Amino acid sequence: MNNIPNAVDDEFDRPVFIVSSPRSGAELLYDTLMRAPRVFTVGSGSHKLVEDIDALHVRAHGFDSNRLSAGDATPEVVAQVRQGYRDGAVDRDGARPRRMPLRLLDKTPKHSLRIPFLAKAFPQAHFVYLYRDPREALSNMLLAWESNRFCTYKSLPGWPRPHWSLLLTPGWRELAGKPLADIVAGQWRAATEVLLDDLAALEPTRWRVVRYRDFIDNPAGEIARLCLSLDYAWDRPLDGGLAGLIKLPTTADAEIIRKHAADLQRAWPSLQAVADRAARVAGAVAVH
């Protein structure tokens, strides 16, 4: 893997950020990669690490979205973000780094809207785009909203529902009052468009793709390929695959999907162009 020209960072050696459309399996990939030796993470703390900084909280942007641009990466803000990652970093055994620079791995759904910000804050940053069949992702998004367990913002100004789930995407106000299938469709489309545009603006050496289906079908092979690409060591073979890590759908889940199926099918044409683009980027078969 080529280093970024002229990028010098004495604290973070080629940090890796997993980015994806909502509910695409990023947590599973993250939980697997964090088993690599000499890789450091901040665990669930990354969900709050960025937005706990007042200048980066969604209210500082008029609740427009979780989008962060390179312009948001002011010296003061960058110093706070980097300190948060330094202070919270632990390896797979819970040990703190003993020397710098460290290999950081991070994942949070909102990072899909923060690529320019992260690329500026971490000059050696690399990104892994996890692609998943949009219909599978949309079904998982519906389940997340219906579960009430993914409550990102309560009493969001201008939002008629009790809460907003998952990441807050650009144009969310246009979804107010619409059926849930239209909400998740608009959310997926906005997140994916931003994600693909931002990746396209990076040097090709700074990002790579993992297809969720390939990862599930051949986890050992995909992790070996990815670790080689990221210059990660790997010493814990996945002989048992991902058994026990994948949550199987329940009867209740299937009923929820059936309830929204007609609305989701109606909304699909509005997603087709973005779905086709995502498939091309990932080298996957287009979904129709």
Short recap of the structure:
The chain is α/β, with parallel strands linked by helices and about 290 residues long. The chain has helices at about 25-35, 45-50, 75-90, 115-120, 135-145, 180-200, 210-215, 220-230, 250-265, 270-280; strands spanning about 15-20, 40, 105, 125-130, 150-155, 165, 205-210. Helix 5 crosses helix 6 and helix 6 packs across helix 10.
Account of the 3D structure:
The chain has 288 residues and is of the alpha/beta class. It has one domain: Rossmann fold, CATH 3.40.50. It is built from ten helices and seven strands. Strands 2-3-1-4-7 form a five-stranded parallel beta sheet, sandwiched between helices. Strands 5-6 form a two-stranded antiparallel sheet. It is globular and about 55 Å long. The chain starts with 15 loop residues before the first strand and ends in a 6-residue tail after the last helix. The model has no long low-confidence stretch (mean pLDDT 92).
Summary keywords:
single chain, 288 residues, alpha/beta, Rossmann fold, 5-stranded parallel beta sheet, two-stranded antiparallel sheet, 7 strands, globular, Sulfotransferase
